[in-house]
Amino acid sequence: MQHWPVRQRTRAVRAGAIFVAIATGGTAYAADLARGDRRFVEQAVQSSAFMLEAGRLAATHAAHGDVRRFAARTLNEQTGLSQQMKALASAKGVKLRTDFKRGQQGTLDDLREDRGIKFDQRYVQKVAIGAHKEAVKLFDDQSRHGKDPELAALARRTLPALQAQLEAGKDLRAVVAAASERAALSGAGKGPSN
Predict the structure, then answer these.
(1) Is the Cα torsion angle 118, 175, 75, 156 positive or negative in sign?
(2) Alpha helices in the chain (DSSP H)
(3) CB 75 within 8 A of CB 55
(4) Domain locations in the chain as residue ranges
(5) Fewer C-beta neighbours within 10 Å, C or N terminus of the chain?
(6) Half-sphere exposure of residue 67: CA atoms within 13 angstroms, side-chain side
């Protein structure tokens, strides 16, 4: 077995480190990410996937045009965010789950069965408000406490859009409540189709 002199070993280690840094774009791997940063990436991707799936259901299950429009805006925003988060996860070596949390899966199962006003009510409560409220908290926490500067910056850039969507979801709650009340009074049960 041949031993390299100390100077050559040091150069070889430095060259290897430089190669790894160049090959990875200088980004940290999951092992180098703080636990909170890794959890943020996992939860943000999962949240986005949940909102995307619920939004796709709204296109065919919602009774009220405002619910469909809200879902379309959410789909548009979450598609871009999802792509950014997945790219960051890949670059940082974070392995992503492909399933939903138990509560998310239960909500999606219910939304798949619901139609009309019942769908609108559940979608507004669980997605337009509930999921957006969780996302705002997640991104706000990351923007203030995240260790990884790239993830913290993404959270800061994304937070205003999530907050605006949450406020729009709260406004939508009043619209859907009024439509539900009108439908109950008329006995129609299907709600407006505007």
Answers:
(1) negative
(2) 6-23, 35-61, 65-91, 102-113, 116-123, 132-145, 149-186
(3) yes
(4) 28-186
(5) N
(6) 36
pLDDT band at 183 (very low <50, low <70, confident <90, very high): confident
Distance CA 114, CA 61 (A): 7
pLDDT tens per residue across span 41-88: 999 999 999 999 999 999 999 999 999 999 999 999 999 999 999 998
Tell me which residue has tokens 């990351």.
142
Structure tokens at 184: 């109950």
Torsion of CA 73, 77, 78, 82, to 10 degrees: 160
Nearest to 124 by CA among 36, 40, 63: 63
Read off the pLDDT of residues 129-153 as tens digits, 9 standing for 90 and up.
Answer: 999 999 999 999 999 999 999 999 9
Residue 76 neighbours by CB under 8 Å, 6+ apart: none
Residue 122 one-letter amino acid:
R
Q: What is the DSSP letter of 131?
A: I
Q: How far apart are CA 166 and CA 170, in angstroms?
A: 6
The span from the CA of 191 to the CA of 63, in Å, is 6
Question: Does domain 28-186 bear CATH number 1.20.1250.10?
Answer: no
- For residue 189 the two structure tokens come to 């049960």
- Locate 81 and state its tokens: 């965010």
